Amino acid sequence: MATTAAPATDTRVKNGDGTGRGGGDGAGVRRRHRLGDRIWPLGFALAAVLVFVLYQWILPQAPAGVSDFFQTWLPMSTINQCVIWATMAVGLNVVVGYAGLLDLGYVAFWAIGGYVAGWLMSGFFGQWQINFFGHPAPGQESGIHLSFWLVLPLAGLFCALWGVIIGAPTLRLKSDYLALVTLGFGEIIPEVFKNGENINGFNLSNGVKGITPLDPISTGPFAYLGVPEELGPFDETWKFVIYVLIATFAVFVSLRIREGRLGRAWLAIREDELAASMMGVPLMRTKLAAYAVGAFIGGIGGVAYASAVGGVAAEDFAFSSSIILLAMVVLGGMGNVWGVMLGALVLQWINSNGLAKAGEAINQAVGKDLNFPSYNFLVFGAILILMMLFRREGLLPETRTRQVLREPDRGGAEPADAELEGERR
Amino acid sequence: MTDTRDADTRDADTTDTDTPAPLAMSASGITIRFGGLVAIGNVDFTIPERGIVSLIGPNGAGKTTFFNVLTGLYRPSNGRVLLGSKDVTGMSPHKVASLGLARTFQNIRLFNLMTAEENVLVGMHSRMRSGIVRTVLRTPGQRREEREGREFARELLEFVGIGAVAQELSRNLSYGDQRRLEVARALALRPRVLLLDEPTAGMNPQESARFVEFVHRVRDERGVSILLIEHDMSVVMRVSERVTVLDRGEKIAEGPPEEIKSDERVIEAYLGKTGTHGYGEDE
Ligand SMILES: Nc1ncnc2c1ncn2[C@@H]1O[C@H](COP(=O)(O)OP(=O)(O)O)[C@@H](O)[C@H]1O
Ligand SMILES: [Mg+2]
Questions:
Q1: In this complex, is the C-beta atom of A160 within 8 Å of any C-beta atom belonging to chain B?
Q2: How far is CA B36 from CA A356, B39, B255, in A?
Q3: Which label site among A315, A333, A338, A361 has the fewest CB atoms less than 10 Å from its CB?
């Protein structure tokens, strides 16, 4: 049982996904990791600042050709959509990437979050008149008008509650069945909203018409710093700042939890559920926590989405959205928030703008009239297949996963491992 | 430690409160069926406080199944399991574990993509308190808990002799180190009882010999009671204060190692199975 010499330092794993650990390694190793760990958060912050400065101050003054180019290929509304989808993907990553639970109905939380925003930030419930730091449009004073900043946590908590409600009876199921139940949940919730205009005389969701318009976002004390007091449909660059903050919150929360007791328990369950339970990890509670955290982030993402498009409509929340989010997580690199962010930004750009514009450009060049956006899922499918063939671990995988998937098979070198695989279900 | 005496007296009545020697764990009348197969039939078993006892028997005798009953993975069709004086029959595994029962696995089951240190930290899960909010805010209490957890993990890794590889992924450890890590992870529960399922499987004779010392050290320095399933007879004879023999789910003998060695039924059980595996090589 001789202790083996430590293999090269690059097989060491960083704590969580990116932040350094204060452990007792050599200082040199630690510093190198620290730098590597900071590249992604720094890059993300820098990119956000650049985008804001560019769209807020530079492009309005730029020559028409330049601003047209950006308007065509990367309009602000697209960027906002990308950031919101990225938030949502980071939330799904908690469930799928961290805890290893396949969720095919994540769009349900997005829908619930969106409707919470619809209920609490519009004139929809005209029978009541409640205003708490809200900013109702003139003439729309009836209804419930809460501050956007209050609606965010409320929607998050409401979704977390729903996560627990559907998780409690279903998380006991084996993963395949769990996937089916989540799929059903993702289908049912939007249907409830679609048909919820008359529930015993109570209008819950306004049916297919949806709830619109939403109150503008109030900026509170920042109004003194030159930010508009209210952010309406046309203040997209300012809204961008808010969506970036929300995405940052989602990333921050996932990274912090990942590094602690709960995150380790998630990872342990993902690795070996039975062994985890024998080490004192309560499986149900731990999985429910993953559901709740994922749902919370989905909920705030839903509020952000509703505020970006100015309302909620049931048909926005389709099964395909759950699948796209899953694709973002897989493409980016399951388990690593930065990879998931990257995957989401890229895919959502293709989805909302990139494919359409590229299609137009190609149509012009070859003189055809193909409807490129309708091939959206073909492109997604192709990307996923290519990824699985050539880069299974995703664009930017978790350090620990990268090792396994990149390593050549160790063949029969480890009989114990082979035996182990046989033993597991 | 006292050995056979308490086992004999206990057979009569398990609810008896004035047990002669303190017991870390006791199981009485355990029966478990898989469909028609009786995997364990009416087995009584005790682990004395700070004792080292072993469970042996031919392959398929039901040893691992018995472990799985003790740890709460299987609910026995009949019988009761007490940890200390607490009835843990039918409790879920994580509950039993947090009440002080830790185990290792016959086929190593580490969390492969976690470092050795993280593996041990998972074992501390039930002793740590920080929830979501405190973790996100990194409150001083949470940071202290993490720091102390890591210190204890280091201590345990040093204790089992793999402190140098604390930051390695457990899948990259050598086979022997993985076995040691499993023990460290189990000890992280600060258990009262430690169950070792064929811990020397895959070890060469020198490693096995060192393992015997190691088991004694674990008992003496960590204050745990140990039950091991073992197929290597030389290890069994040197390490155990008492040996229990299972055959086809039945307890066929129990007593000090020397007695077991010359027990007719035991020899028969093993010899009757020549060819199944390398058992009896020591006899
Ligand atoms: N989950 C199970 N379902 C059905 N049969 C099982 C199960 N687990 C073990 N058995 C059977 O119970 C018997 C005892 O197995 P086991 O406890 O693994 O033996 P040992 O550890 O002594 O080699 C074997 O016949 C085995 O096939
Ligand atoms: Mg066994």
A1: no
A2: 64, 9, 30
A3: A315
Domain range spanning residue A105? 76-219+231-318
Residue B56 contacts residue B245 (beta carbons within 8 Å): yes
CA dist., res. B268 & res. B248, Å (int): 13
B275 pLDDT higher than 80: no
B19 vs B143: CA distance, rounded Å? 44
The Cα A178–Cα A35 span in angstroms is 40
Contacts of B128 in chain A (CB under 8 A): 261
ipTM, 2 dp: 0.87
DSSP β-ladder status, B37-48 and B23-34: antiparallel
Tell me the pLDDT tens digit for each residue of A26-47: 344 444 555 667 888 899 999 9
Q: Is the pLDDT of residue B249 over 50?
A: yes
Tell me how many degrees the CA angle A106-A424-A11 measures, rounded to the nearest 5: 75
Q: pLDDT tens-digit profile of A231-257?
A: 877 788 899 999 999 999 999 999 999
- With a 6 A CB cut-off, is B34 part of the ligand 1 pocket? yes
Spatial distance between the Cα atoms of A408 and B94, rounded to a whole number of angstroms: 36
In A74-147, which ranges are continuous DSSP H helix?
76-93, 107-120
Let me know if residue A224 belongs to a domain.
no
The one-letter amino acid code at B101 reads L
| CA distance, residue B62 to nearest chain A CA (Å) | 16
For residue B46, give the nearest of B87, B4, B1 by alpha carbon: B4
Cα separation, B167 vs B73, whole angstroms: 31
The phi, psi pair for B74, rounded to 5°, reads -110, 140
Find out whether B229 and B197 touch, Cβ atoms under 8 Å: yes
Q: Which uninterrupted H or E stretch holds A64?
A: helix A64-73
d(CA A8, CA A170): 43
Q: What is the mean pLDDT of chain A?
A: 82
pTM over 0.90: no
> Could you report the per-residue pLDDT of A318-375, keeping only the tens digit for each?
898 999 999 999 888 888 999 999 999 999 998 888 888 888 888 888 888 888 888 8
Phi, psi of A169 (to 5 degrees): -80, -20
Report the b/e string of A25-40 with b at 16+ CB within 10 A. eeeeeeeebeeebeeb
Length in residues, chain A = 425
Ligand nearest to the CA of A274: 1
Residue B120 in tokens? 């041990």
Domains of chain B: 48-74+89-100+191-283 (3.40.50.300), 110-189 (no CATH)
Q: Where residue B1 falls among pLDDT bands split at 50, 70, 90?
A: very low
Q: Does residue A83 sit at the B interface (CB-CB below 8 Å)?
A: no
CA of B93 to the centre of ligand 1 (A): 18
- A47 domain-assigned: no
> Within a domain: residue A154?
yes
**β-pair partners for B229:** B55, B197
Identify whether A113 is part of a domain.
yes
**Cβ of residue B192 closer than 8 Å to a chain A Cβ:** no
List all residues 6 or more positions away from B16 whose beta carbon is below 8 Å from its beta carbon: B10
**CA gap B111, B129 in Å, rounded:** 21
- Return the residue of A nearest to B195 by Cα: A278
| Lowest mean pLDDT segment, chosen from A2-6, A228-232, A378-382, B132-136 | A2-6
Give CA A127 to chain center in angstroms.
Answer: 35
Q: Tokens 């008008």, residue?
A: A145
Task: Give the C-alpha separation, A361 to A71, whole Å.
Answer: 14
Residue B259 scores a pLDDT above 50? yes
